[in-house]
């Protein structure tokens, strides 16, 4: 039995028992994976997968137990490699980040650029996904860290570290009636127009829906998208009033759009980094988290991850505070958020 065989086994299970997809996933050949699977089953003395002709039909009861233990073994092997790399002060490797489009597009570029300057031999792989999928990627071991936002609740699935808070903007074309306002509209005024927002707004418990329902109103959600750039595109097309994260606004957007800061109109959101407690985090990943949240003590974060202390995080700053601080240090505009501060 080898780690390679166990890795192939997990790839098959996570690819819907499709060996072709599993081979692509682990950069192997289909005959090579089939051969290794047969050798493993011969060694164990039973089938891990039930067959139907030449296809794998289902995981056997014994196979379920083997796969569960294989995941633990592979995870611990990865932990040992990460621990050894940290002890050697190794400055190369990869960092897989599962996050939303807004974070990947508007929050992470400067931080990742800084990380790459410090660790040029670290490859960074972004996995932009929907809110629910981000945490699922972390749970399946397909991401090293997850970055998500919530309006009140703490994300489940690992150690959740608060990074910063942020508000939403109401976005309209400059020719829209609401553009004449000097401040964000009231909810009853906003309820008169179709809205363009994130797909999470469709959820019954979304913070946007809760805000309207709390005022005895129903939001008219016309279009949803994961991508903040798409929200802006459909607002420009006149298909509705946009409601999106303040980080998503750029100076060039203001040529034809008007952004109305809306603090207090909707619940304040918090962006979190979620880490697996059972994984050894590489030092460069810890540096990324520390740069995203300068209010955190890096050594304290490591002690929490190592189980030495319990979490006692400082209150996260507002996004506008982080932007203003960064601009003061570098004198380089970060975006519209600083102008709205």
Automatic annotation (TrEMBL):
GO MF assignments: DNA-binding transcription factor activity; transcription cis-regulatory region binding
Tree of life domain: Bacteria
Domain HTH lysR-type: 1-60
NCBIfam families: PRK12680.1
Family, similarity comment: Belongs to the LysR transcriptional regulatory family.
Name of the protein this chain belongs to: LysR family transcriptional regulator
One Gene Ontology biological process: cysteine biosynthetic process
Source organism of this protein record: Tahibacter aquaticus
Entries under InterPro entries matching the protein: LysR_HTH_N, LysR_subst-bd, WH-like_DNA-bd_sf, WH_DNA-bd_sf
Pfam families (alphabetical): HTH_1 (PF00126), LysR_substrate (PF03466)
Keywords in alphabetical order: DNA-binding, Transcription, Transcription regulation
